[in-house]
Amino acid sequence: MTASITETHFDGLKLINRGKVRDLYEVDDMLLMVATDRISAFDVVMAEPIPHKGEVLTKLSLFWFDYLKGIIPNHLITADVERYPAACQPYKEQLRGRSMLVKKAKPLPVECIVRGYLSGSFWSAYKRDTTVCGVALPAGMQESEKFPQTLFTPSTKAEQGEHDENISLDAMEKLLGADLTARVATACIALYEKAADYARGRGIIIADTKFELGLAGDELILIDEVLTPDSSRFWPADQYRVGGGQPSFDKQFLRDYLSSLDWGKTPPPPALPADILEKTGRRYLEALEKITGHGL
Question: CA 19, CA 36: separation in Å to the nearest integer?
């Protein structure tokens, strides 16, 4: 396992984007995606890293890419650094375990969110109006209650530091067209339901998750990360109780800590105590171990 990495600098490789967590490089006609140990909350990147977080995200994504490949193709070429192009070899020890070589694709201009349970921003919206994002929900639902059926609820993609906004399927159709919208929604629901069934057998409820899809030519493919604690709400099944918030294996623990502070949820972020970093990292590792049966 490598030391914590908050930012990468690879001479000779073309950096094309530095996101909240991933650094993205162009290598020949492919992309090199590197998961750092950065963590964000409320769309603000924290100053301190979560040790080994990038390795956890990568290992989980690789597991899910393989498990779900029968539903939709994905962008993975290889995560074996020994097979990376020569330009990457000087950096292979930094790349090992936290990177993937992937196909280029044009990301769809929407976040593909799938929800199985009433939680988070959806719960906040439901308390104001039982019709959320154009979806009419039953009256009288409680926080963390399972929906009668899986919901696909897209959102806009905001610039870094801004907040995504939930949109209706009608609004998504105006962006992508009815045919592509239907294909995306069908694929995302199938991905979620297969993964949720598996995870439940491993003691984890996947309350909701966010998928990234893109077009490689005319082919719709799954890209970025898949079903990690950064992109999903993971709850321990043995502690699940309807009617309130749930303990989690994701960064909700960090969000809850930050919400207890007198901080406006805008940069600069507050300094994080060592125990918060350690406990957050432990939750990520536990999610990896429960889902895959293996640690780092």
Answer: 10
Q: Distance (Å, rounded) from C-alpha 60 to C-alpha 129?
A: 36
Q: Are residues 112 and 90 in the same domain?
A: no
Distance CA 19, CA 22 (A): 5
Q: What is the CATH number of the domain that holds 86?
A: 3.30.200.20
**10-residue stretch averages of pLDDT, the chain, 296 residues long:** 86 95 97 97 94 96 98 98 98 97 97 96 94 91 97 82 77 96 98 98 97 97 96 96 93 90 95 94 95 94
Could you list the residue range(s) of the whole structural domain that residue 153 is in?
Answer: 107-251
Q: Which long-range contacts (CB under 8 A, 24 or more apart) does 179-183 make?
A: 180/220, 183/220
Extract the tokens encoding 34: 């590197």
Residue located via tokens 């959806």 = 122
Query: What letters, b where the CB count within 10 A reaches 16 and e where it falls short, cover 66-97?
Result: ebbeebbebbbeebebeebeebbeebeebbbb
The C-alpha atoms of residue 293 and residue 287 are separated, in whole angstroms, by 10
How long is the chain?
A: 296
pTM: 0.94
Q: Is residue 86 part of a domain?
A: yes
Measured between alpha carbons, how far is residue 143 from residues 49, 237, 258 in Å?
A: 31, 16, 21
Other CB atoms within a 10 A radius of the CB of residue 150 amount to: 17
Rounded Cα distance, 289 and 278, in Å: 16
- Within the chain, where are the H helices? 53-67, 92-95, 120-128, 169-176, 178-201, 252-259, 274-292
